[in-house]
Amino acid sequence: MAMAQLAEASDTHANFQQHCAACHGADRLGGIGPALLPDNLARLRKPEAEKVIREGRPATQMPAFGGKLSAEEVKALVDYAYTPIKPMPVWGEKEISASRIVSYAPGSLPDKPQFSADPMNLFVVVESGDHHVSILDGDKLAPIHRFQSRFALHGGPKFTPDGRYVFFASRDGWITKFDMWNLKVIAEVRAGINTRNAAVSGDGKWVAVANYLPHSLVILDADLNLAKILPVSDKDGKTSSRVSAVYDASPRQSFVAALKDVKEVWEVSYNPKADEIPTGMIHDFKYREGAFIPGFLNPRRSQLDDYLDDFYFTQGYDEVMGASRNDAKSAVSGQVVNLDARKKIANLELPGMPHLGSGISWKWKDKAGQERTVMATPNLNEGLISIIDMKTWQTIKQIKTRGPGFFMRSHENSRYAWTDSMMSKEFKDTMQIIDKETLEIVAELKPEPGKTFAHVEFTKDGKYVLASLWEDNGALIIYDAATLQEVKRLPMRKPVGKYNVWNKITKSEGTSH
Ligand code: DHE
User: Fold this and answer.
1) Predicted ipTM of the assembly
2) Of 11, 38, 228, 253, which sits with the fewest C-beta atoms within 10 Å of its C-beta?
3) Which Pfam families match (predicted)?
């Protein structure tokens, strides 16, 4: 390498360490941000990647570097990100199993809650300011415990059906099992190098982990022993893929995974009888014509016309309403996939970049008094909430909001749905309240001008709403869900998501699953 080239390479390396390493990892293997490797960037053309560095990326924490780096420096960083790492780090059976830490052996802790609070009305609050988790008593609206978490937890923590255990996933692959009744971390394992999220099976026996790196879906048992690694690629094994997300579909006794780089959706059965059902046969325990499962913990692939980056289940878990993040400007970016027909059955009219994973549903009466189930989704790119009729798949209303938002929440006992505008510079401090009957915005809350205000969760009975003042010296601001008056503040270090045990395990229609 000539001297000039060497100097350029070392500048690029220095720029990477200064501007990129904190989020994407000093070794480019990912951290709070995704891994920057040619495989992971396959769907992004280089000029687009340069634009992302210059202008930032909507809906993420990726800032704009256009003011700090020259066009040549940006180009050099992109070339660096598209250079393969050799040898690629391996994270397979040996590495996963060796990483497992057990702090309390199964069965060694008492089988009843070691506190007086209602175990069904506890909240788990992720505080990303100092990477801690707080446990709150949802009746007294007060913390009962706080502990250090792994670095950069992301996605919803997932509970076992009895609410006793909760599993957290960190962006760098750690899965943590926490005993809610004994308030103890009991086991941990590193299931990947760069992880999206985790799901817990409806029978509480399995944990599925969706990875970006390596390209795998990892199945653990409930004690975090490795059960199976499913390498993720297309049916010919030619193109491997990151997993966008995995969710539990309890009524189907399966995990459903969305893939980022292959146009397929995967369904992995955890039905213990799955091996007894020959592939291609109609199975009797859940009769559906043409449905079959290819055995226990094996993926059943459905081929799609488009990628599925983000999705929402219908109540029966038979359909997923999904969207790709390919073309934020396209008018029709959504699809409905029936998991038994194993194909797209409808298009969804969803402009911008809908965030279906944050969708919620409720029963709504139209002008003729006819009851319908509607689904509402925020939009990461535009200030609007799309309301979709879940029978006809038509968009019945687009509600204009202050700005692009990330999350939505409601509760069966509340007439209001809450949404934020946290992706907007001007209105990130404003929460808007939608009347679920009239589909109109009826109130706005801006408790601390200029400070990010987003993500709410209701108490078990739906009487109070806990909202995040999303700042390092932030707070949970608690509102009366009916009068919308503030009732209390609990100081917190950048509280992100919060999750109520009851709402989660009963799969309340107002919260994420
Ligand atoms: Fe998330 C959930 C994907 C950026 C905070 N986010 C999820 C889930 C997915 C997802 C698939 C559902 C997981 C589940 O329920 O287990 N998130 C993505 C992205 O693709 C995106 C846009 C880009 C990325 O960086 O990966 C992204 N997410 C963010 C953020 O920048 C947020 C605001 C801050 C952070 O901590 O990283 C963020 N995501 C969250 C939260 C949830 C979440 C708080 C859980 C929501 C819930 O209430 O269940």
Assistant:
1) 0.96
2) 38
3) Cytochrom_D1, Cytochrome_CBB3
